[in-house]
Every structure is written in C-alpha cells, then in structure tokens.
Amino acid sequence: MYSDDMTTQPTGLRALKKRQTRENISNQATRLFLERGFDNVTIADVAAAAQVAKMTVTNYFPRKEDLALDMQDVFVQQLANTVRERQPGESALTALRRAYLASVAAHDPVIGFSGPQFARMITDSAALVARLREFHDDREKALAAALAEETGAPDDDIAPRVAATQLAGIHRLLFEETMRRTLAGHDNDDIAQAVTRYASVAFEALAPSLASYAIRPM
User: Fold this and answer.
1) I want to staple 143 with a disulfide (CB 3.0 to 4.6 A). Which of 13, 79, 123, 212 is the partner?
2) Class of 72-210 per CATH?
C-alpha cells in the first residue's frame, strides 16, 4: 500500500547518510591537519582515513581548504542572518552588537574561539590564511546585500555597502584579535573579557553614523 512514509523515509535516510559521510570526512581531515599540518596532508590521505574515494571527498569539499574551514556557510551568512532576524525597533548595529556579545559569552568558534592548535594550523598555512580572507570578504558582501534588502535601497545606493564595510570590518578586527590572543596562550575567559571591551569601543565608534540605520519597523 502506498503511503507518504514510503517516500519520506528513504529520503530521510539518504540525507542522514550524506550528513554522516560529510561529518566523518571533516573529522578525519581535521585530525590529520592538526597532527601533520594542513600543507602536509593530501586529499588522498583524507580519503584513506575516512575510508572513502577521493572523488567522494571532493564532492563534499571541492577545495582542500574547505576541509579545514568547514563552517564556511555559517561564517559567511552569520552577519546577514543577524540583520534579517533583528527585533522590531532594533537597528542593524544594535542587533549585530547583541549577537556578537552572545557569541563571545558562548566562546563560539565561528568568531575565533578555535583553540591554540587549530589557530596555529590556520596561521601556519598561507593557503588557509588566504581562504579565511575570502570568507571575510564574502561575509561583507552578504551583509551588504542583506542591508540593501532590508532598507529597500536601489542598486546604485552605496549606503548598504558603506555600512557593511564598517560593520564587517569590526567583526574581522575582533576575529583577528581573538586569534592573536589564542596564539599568545590566553585562555578563553581572558580572551572573552578583552574582546568584550574592544567590542564596546568599536561598536560605540560606529553609533554616530549607524545607530539609526536599518531599524526594523515596529
């Protein structure tokens, strides 16, 4: 007898299998990168450790760098999503500040709380440093697009890009400071205290120009 369960169950199992395969590849790659250094590990090494074909690895991760930096989508869309989900009466600046401080309190790896071993793996590889720079650039573009949508700005309006440059720039600065302190041996609590102070200075510096920008209607 035909039922919806007969179609949804196989689909659900396939999705689960894909997610498990992706996670296994990512976990094995991270282990190897931390043990040997990113530049000393090949796609073939990762495939062998994950017990899959090389093509399977590249199907899930087209670029080797993305095996190490596998939170690309979350990172790139983080600021844009915060703006889209801001509360009524809340400006983009206020929403981003609130979200950032919450991430600091949670020691969120997405904002740089990655631990010294992982941070060192990134900074020791020119390829990973370059890829991370691309992520920051893509995040700024995604934020600019979200601000344009939320404010109804025409295509030739530069204001969303100006705001995104400032707001994403603060997040990039704070990310780099978090990484710097991590590599210097500070623990997460000390780092959180420091970047919270820096965030206060940084966001307050933008208040005169952005405090009333992109406020969600009540």
Assistant:
1) 79
2) mainly alpha
